[in-house]
Automatic annotation (TrEMBL):
Molecular function via GO: ATP binding; hydrolase activity; mRNA binding; RNA helicase activity
Record GO cellular component, one term: catalytic step 2 spliceosome
Subcellular localization: Nucleus
Coiled coil stretches, renumbered: none
Residues of the Helicase C-terminal domain: 535-679
InterPro entries per record: DEAD/DEAH_box_helicase_dom, Helicase_ATP-bd, Helicase_C-like, P-loop_NTPase, PRP28/DDX23-like_helical, RNA-helicase_DEAD-box_CS, RNA_helicase_DEAD_Q_motif
Protein name per Swiss-Prot or TrEMBL: RNA helicase
Biased composition (Basic and acidic residues): 49-63, 80-104, 207-228
Length: 698
């Protein structure tokens, strides 16, 4: 403020007409008032007015001013040029500075004027000086000992004096004869090349224009394929980073190893990497995304492409691996490809597909899972199982449906009473086939398959493996009959059934048949009958619901359920002695968390899928290892982990050996010492050890 006042006073005294400068902005003098009386003395400008004018000028200069595009480009170019010049100047200064430092360092090390010499040159000069004044050091000749019997005929390279003056020893003379390549013109490679060019030129003259175009296209295709193969040989990307058309056989092999997939059979299509590559109907893909299925499971990756090709399948996978969607999705995809009018006209001919399940509970579970996709797509499903009114089921069948989900016994009853026919059934699924045959349903299954027409059976030839032929055939309702068989184990009875009714099937193995999932931690406790109840209470107090407890007897399930309810636990029972309504109620109570514990027999051991089962307790050990495998498969499903606890007594000695082998093969389970060292666990049931220590089959 003082500087401004001094400047103003100075300008007023000197009478200059220049503006007042403040910083870089000039404030001009105010113009004379035209009506001012000249006789009156001039009044100096007030300080406040000068300050206001200065502020107004500053605001005007700070306001953004419009610049045309040309001016902006010119300004940007000028700024860029200035920046570049400044950068180059800095780099030049740095280079000069570095050179100066290097020069000073060389002078300090070697002395001024010797920095241009290399170290080798200086060493050579010092060596010559030493030779001049000290003389040449003569090497002593090596004297061969008299006892050296082996004479060395080769010259020492140091003794060879001919290389100093004779250039012939340095450059060998090449023989120049007629021809190229080999001596005397005998070049086999060149002869074959000339022969090929001769025949190619001769054929080129004889080809027509159409043949020339075809030949050129084939040549380009071969060149493209060779370039692609050369690129693939040096491609080190992971299979997840490659598009589908760039996958090599090695990538598919690594992919199958990553998901533990093993396939047998000819012309098997590659597995799915994602849902987008499945070739499913867009509406079905929307339903998959809506239901939250992000990625296919291993059995779905391998089985869905085979099912979409109308190929017979034998699927062997661990429990809880997602087998239901593996056969439901290809089935629904084929049905919705048929026109709606055709489907309505064929109501009287029966369903297009039949899904067989060993138990009512598994059939209802398949119906629930399939309806999640079938209802949005307009596909009608009907379940034909025991425990429900036959008249209600026949009424639903008369209204028409595309898919029937049934147990073998009730389906035979319906077919024998002519409530339904299978005149156009061309898709048969047998889920849990091993359990179905173990329960004695093999005659019923064979009778059901006899009801299905044989006019559309696949031929037992290579045509049953031809992908293109099968895909073309599956585009209409009169396609080849497709039989799909899913199982967790592969006993002889299942193999016999597959050989009889399947044509050139593709076998898909996920993991090891009959083995529990590695996600299930198996714990075994050696107890007496009296200790079981106390140990069970300890486990229930430390667990998170829901929990399934398996027993062997129906009466034992009811007694244990009542005991748990008296102790304050929310428990329900499920076994074959209860009606279908009570069984469904027990399952729904466990699913909606009204009950925390389900006490069940082997009825719930197969196929029942309840999400979030944290623990399975085998209060009574199963009678065989197959039932044990399916029991513990109720936990650790769909990629989650689980715990299976088994109470063993001396009465379970028949399964000791199988259980020990299963625990040893599991990655996250430990075989207790009492079981491992038990005499009954040392040899397989049905064998004995003779006096020589060898096992013999009894």
């Amino acid at each position: 403020m003082a500087a401004i006042v001094a400047t103003v006073a100075d300008r007023v005294e000197t009478g200059t007409s220049a503006g007042i400068m403040t910083g870089t902005n000039a404030v001009p003098r105010p113009a004379a008032v035209p009506n001012q009386d000249p006789s009156k003395p001039k009044q100096p400008l007030s300080l406040e007015e000068l300050m206001k004018k200065h502020e107004r000028a500053k605001e005007e200069s700070n306001k953004p001013k419009f610049m045309s595009k040309k001016k902006r480009e010119a300004l940007a170019a000028r700024l860029a040029a200035e920046e570049k010049a400044q950068k180059e100047q800095q780099e030049k200064e740095l280079r000069d500075k570095r050179k100066q430092l290097e020069r000073e360092a060389r002078d300090a090390r070697f002395g001024e004027g010797l920095a241009w010499q290399t170290e080798d040159e200086r060493n050579a000069e010092l060596k010559d000086i030493r030779k001049r004044y000290f003389g040449r050091q003569r090497e002593k000749r090596k004297i061969r000992r008299m006892n050296d019997k082996k004479f060395v005929f080769d010259w020492d390279e140091k003794d060879d004096t001919s290389t100093d003056y004779n250039p012939l020893y340095k450059e060998k003379h090449e023989v120049q004869l007629f021809g190229r390549g080999h001596i005397a013109g005998i070049d086999v490679v060149q002869q074959l090349k000339d022969k090929g060019e001769f025949y190619e030129a001769m054929l080129e003259k004889r080809r027509s224009e159409e043949q020339k175009a075809t030949h050129e296209a084939a040549r380009r295709r071969d060149a493209r394929d060779q370039a692609k193969m050369a690129k693939q040989r040096h491609d080190t990307r992971h299979w997840s980073e490659k598009p589908l058309d760039e996958m090599t056989n090695r990538d598919w092999r690594i992919f199958r190893e990553d998901f533990n997939i093993a396939c047998k059979g000819g012309n098997i299509p590659p597995p799915l990497r994602s849902w987008d590559e499945a070739g499913l109907n867009p509406e079905m893909l929307k339903a998959i995304q809506k239901l939250g299925f992000e990625n296919p499971t291993p059995i779905q990756r391998a089985a869905i492409p085979i099912g979409l090709n109308n190929r017979d399948i034998i699927g062997v996978a661990e429990t809880g691996s997602g087998k239901t969607l593996a056969f439901v999705l290809p089935l629904l995809n084929w049905i919705i490809s048929l026109p709606q009018l055709v489907r309505e006209q064929d109501i009287d001919n029966g369903p297009y597909a039949v899904i067989l399940a060993p138990t009512r509970d598994l059939a209802q579970q398949i119906e629930d899972e399939a309806n999640k996709f079938a209802r949005p797509l307009g596909v009608r499903l009907v379940s034909v199982i025991g425990g429900h009114s036959r008249e209600d089921q026949s009424f639903k069948l008369n209204q028409g449906c595309e898919v029937v989900i049934a147990t073998p016994g009730r389906l035979i009853d319906v077919l024998d009473n002519h409530y339904m026919v299978l005149n156009q059934c061309s898709y048969i699924v047998m889920d849990e086939a091993d359990r179905m045959l173990d329960m004695g349903f093999e005659p019923e299954v064979q009778r059901i398959l006899e009801y299905i027409p044989v006019s559309n059976m696949k031929p037992d030839t290579d045509e049953a493996e031809d992908q293109h032929l099968l895909a073309e055939n599956s585009r209409n309702k009169a396609k080849y009959r497709q039989t799909v068989l899913f199982t967790a184990t592969m006993p002889t009875s299942v193999e016999r059934l597959a050989r009889t009714y399947l044509r050139r099937p593709a076998t898909v193995n996920i993991g090891v048949a009959g083995r529990a999932a590695d996600r299930v931690e198996q714990r075994v406790l050696m107890l007496s009958e009296k200790q079981k109840r106390n140990e069970l209470v300890k486990l229930l107090d430390s667990m998170e619901p829901p929990v399934i407890i398996f027993v062997n007897q129906k009466k034992g399930a009811d007694v244990l359920t009542k005991s748990l309810e008296k102790m304050g636990y929310r428990a329900s029972a499920l076994h074959g002695g209860k009606s279908q309504d009570l069984r469904e109620r027990a399952l729904s109570q466990l699913k909606d968390k009204t009950k925390d514990i389900l006490v069940a027999t082997d009825v719930a051991g197969r196929g029942i899928d309840i999400k979030g089962i944290s623990m399975v307790i085998n209060y009574d050990m199963a009678k065989n290892i197959e039932d044990y495998t399916h029991r513990i498969g109720r936990t650790g499903r769909a990629g989650s982990s689980g715990v299976a606890v088994t109470f063993l007594t001396e009465e379970d000695s028949k399964v000791f050996w199988d259980l020990k082998e299963m625990l040893k093969s599991s990655k996250n389970s430990v075989c207790p010492r009492e079981l491992e060292q038990h005499p009954e666990a040392q040899h397989k049931p049905g064998t004995a050890v003779n006096k020589f220590g060898r096992k013999e089959t009894l």
